[in-house]
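Weekly structure sync, notes
Attendees: PL (lead), two postdocs, one rotation student
Agenda item 3: pending single-chain targets
PL asked that the sequence for the first pending target be pasted directly into the notes so everyone works from the same version. It is reproduced below exactly as submitted, 219 residues in total.
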Amino acid sequence: MNDAVIQLLVLAAIALFLVFRLKNVLGKRTGFEKPTIPAPRDDAPVRRDFEVIEGGPDRDITDHVAEGSVSAKALASMKAAEPGFVVTEFVGGARQAYEMILMAFENGDLASVEPFLSEDVYEAFLSVVADREDKGLKIDASFIGVRETSLEEAEFDDATSEGQITLRFVGELTSVVRDAEGTIVEGNPNEIKKQRDIWTFARVMGSDDPNWKLVATGG
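Predicted structure, written out during the meeting:
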């Protein structure tokens, strides 16, 4: 083997060695690989790009009253005293109770709704019904529907665990007053009138009695 061939083989060997070393140092990249991020040491601070927010606003409450308001805090206390209490379900039930109680009052049949009335409210309603009967008057009413229901205020007594919720209702109905002979003395059977009421319901949260009672009325 002549000297030229030996030099060529030596140069080729050196070139292969350099290529091998460069490959080990640089690595193979395709252009689509994500850069490698070294795992943090146990003693290194962990960087967080976001925080998970816990204990945010309760939409069941803030859908009805302003966040952070006195009423919102009262409703939260009611839910703490009775975890199964849902404000939205209460409002829906109160809407139905409004129609039931209002029509019982109009028709003079308070016995059917007595369990849902406080003693004071029951006596006040009974007095009006008795006065109508003494005068020989009768109301002929037909309920059309509740057009608005809004939660106006909520209160909670920590000492007694009693919650009070005040709602504003706007209902629609037809109503006429007839005398003993059936003659209309007031109202028009074909006229739909709006009935606006502000009612307050109360209940001891966590008690075995599931019924809320109407404790105050206003217009």
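Discussion points:
- The helical segments are 3-26, 59-62, 70-81, 87-107, 119-134.
- Strands lie at 138-157, 162-178, 184-187, 193-204, 213-218.
Action: rotation student to compare against the earlier draft before next sync.
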